[in-house]
Amino acid sequence: MTAISRWTIEDYHATIAAGMLDRRRVELVNGEIVAMAPEQPLHFNRGDRISRYLRNLLKDRASVRHGGPVTLPHDSEPEPDIAVVAPLVEEYDLRHPSPAEIFWLVEISNTSLTYDLTQKAVLYASSRIPEYWVLDLQGSILWVHRQPQTEGYQSKVARTDGAIAPIAFPEVEISVRMLLD
Q: How far apart are CA 82 and CA 99, in angstroms?
């Protein structure tokens, strides 16, 4: 299916400001307004718990945002489940984080795994997001994507246990089990 019209970020913001997208779970991806899967309790609670865990580990080194938009090139403003970004809290009152400020993004997948591992991965890689994690709730797997290129991430590793250190904070060890359980 071909989009009837491509949306710019400015168009999208004007539509939001006009109230036309109220109570709709959507995001802007490559100039198209895309419906997001309804958020089930497991999905939301996992994101909330992981956000608190990451805030505790990272302290003032980063801001951990749960369920907010990020502004990317190619007329995209997706809403990853978790965005770990530079701690520019006051600047984010005026705009959403941009790629230069994003340390890594996390999507929590219960029903959207294929989309998150394909289209979202290409979007984030082409935007030069250095690291992208997908938590597969059904398979109990953490997919870690690194080395972004235009067509996708060069490195994609499945983790089920142990600890992982994010690229931006190699001194921080994050329990994979804590993320998956």
A: 14
